[in-house]
Amino acid sequence: MAVLGRPNVGKSTLFNRLVGRQRAITDPTPGVTRDVLEGELDLGGPRVRLLDTGGYTLGRGELEREVSRRSLAIAGSCDLTLALVEAAGLTREDQALFERLRRLPGFPDKVVLVVNKVDGPKQELELGEFQALGFSRLAPVSAAHGRGIAELKRMIREALEREGGTGAVKPEAAEPEGAEAEPAETEPVGAADVLPSAAPQGAGARKTGAELRLAIIGKPNTGKSTLLNRLLGEERALVSESPGTTRDPIGGTLRYRGRTLKVLDTAGIRRKSRVSEPVEYYSVNRAIQSIEEADLVVLLMDVREGVSDQDKKIASLAVRAGRGVILALNKVDLLAKTKGELRGIEERVRFDFPMMDFAPLVALSASRGTGVDRLLAEVLEVGRQLNHQVPTGKLNLAVKRWVAEYALPVRGKNVKIRYVTQTGANPVRFLFFVNSLRQFPQRYLQYLKNRIRADLGFDRVPVDISLRES
For the whole prediction, is pTM greater than 0.70? Predict the structure, then answer.
């Protein structure tokens, strides 16, 4: 089911009200929602997928036309569309939208006209111009205050039952950008390996062994939306040369080698001094929140620009949260074909990123599909290591061996490691019981981390060590 209307009629407010949480950014600025957001509507029966579209506008800009085209295509593929207007009156854009909706198969039975900002009984008596439009279902609501939402849900349930739909969407088939990929070291992902299927993007606690949550993070215009579309095999995110096109975290779910991956594309993260619009400020905060909600992060960089200070800050946020990180160099198809150029860039990235020496580094072209298969293979391996558990007996035997090979560098008091246990997976945490916290040399912790990674199967993930005196 889709929510469709002109800019600034309250589509995102209605979407948030129906799904029961703030998934979409709401702001008085028209056109804040550009990509397709997805949530789950609870009607007390089968799960209903609700899509918040970018909306319909008569604007002639390239981005505006693309948003409108996609929104109408989504409405045409849904079991039901909520056509949203404002109680203040119809506009030229509303009328143009209705003309397009009337051409859709199943009109008017597959459309509910929702009149928003009806804040009281007096306004309900002034809906004559909307009732004359020929829609079989009309629902006056106040999305901001929740008025009329229960009746709207009842109307939705009846409409879906009558149409025999479940709210499942049949996405518009999209030709992947750069479908004819050039030969590469790794083949582009094929349909046999990746089976896109949409699913709600709600947050929720991570579970060991459950689906892997992957956040695509990076500076603006590094190709995050192109990569998301490539992974899902459909146009879920708008792709534009203009930085900052993506504002809400958007995503979907895919299957790869028997595992379920939930992918989020987020707004580009800039330096705070460059974040001026309130909408962009909120978008960046949501992107940072996506790091907290993810299991692992793909830090996407433009291969021509290399590592920036902002990339280092993003990686630091992810590591402090215990998330796996994959460094991805995108747009390798734009490099000159000089032999060894990519190798030199990769070496430079490693040199500039010493704190991330454990993180996998993948070169790819999201537009052509080159390297994406290797990226997904690394995602699975990082996910496996994040959820890896070491038996306590094996862990203590290993620590005893490490201490024998490199003794604790202390003077005076005999500092000892009494016992070790793994206290967490995803994020990976270990607790060392020692006889003296004050005397324990902090530089020895790095040695222990290195040995844990090298000997116990955590060479691609961040490892946290805590000390406790006993």
Answer: no
Whether the bond into 462 is cis, omega within 30 of 0: no
Q: pLDDT tens across 69-88, in order? A: 888 888 888 899 999 999 98
Q: In Å, how far are 30, 63, 281, 300, 419 from 275, measured between CA atoms?
A: 19, 21, 6, 19, 48
Residue 175 DSSP code: P
Residue 467 to residues 321, 400, 432, Cα–Cα distance (Å): 18, 16, 5
Domains and CATH numbers, the chain: 2-163 (3.40.50.300), 194-386 (3.40.50.300), 392-469 (3.30.300.20)
Q: What is the pLDDT of residues 301-347, one digit of tens each?
A: 999 998 988 788 888 889 988 999 999 999 999 998 776 889 999 99
- Count Cβ neighbours within 10 Å for each residue of 285-304 and write b for 16 or more, e otherwise: ebbbebbebbbbbbbbbbbe
Residue 344 has a pLDDT of 92
Residue 220 to residue 243: CA distance in whole angstroms: 5
DSSP 300: E
Alpha carbons 17 and 143: distance in angstroms, whole number: 6
Cβ neighbour number for residue 73 with a 10 Å cutoff: 17
Is the per-residue pLDDT at 119 higher than 50? yes
Query: CA–CA separation, 116 vs 101, rounded Å?
Result: 18
CB neighbour burial string for 21-31, b if at least 16 within 10 angstroms, e if fewer? eebbbbbeeeb
CA–CA separation, 79 and 317 (whole Å)? 41
Residue 448: in which H helix or E strand, if any? helix 443-456
